[in-house]
Amino acid sequence: MSWFRRLCLVYAVILLGAAAINYIPGLTDDQGLAFGIFALDPFDDALHLVSAIWAALAGYLSNRSATLFLILFGAAYLGDGVFGIFTGWGYLDFGIFTNPSLGPDLSFLRIAANLPHIGLGAVALVAGLISARRA
Q: pTM for this structure?
């Protein structure tokens, strides 16, 4: 199994963890914020669960499916995180379509809330592009 396929399986575990955050006692505060930074709703949980299933299938199927997952997932999540910093909302949960823009904000909380999508997206996108180049 290639490194890229293994990375997809790591992403599956990370995304399952993200889907479970709301259901693990002590990880959310009294206001429902995970780690006191961001709120996850059932739609977010479903998005993370579907992404985890996609990652696991891509990792198990082939190098080509792993590469495709890494590129598409990476671009989607990276873009979502960037939109989050500049508008206060992402597009994967349709937030930019249902809420008015809060404007750009480089505060610690805004960056921390979007850093998981930016970090996971950037790593996946770069890995996917490297994998595609090697193919």
A: 0.90
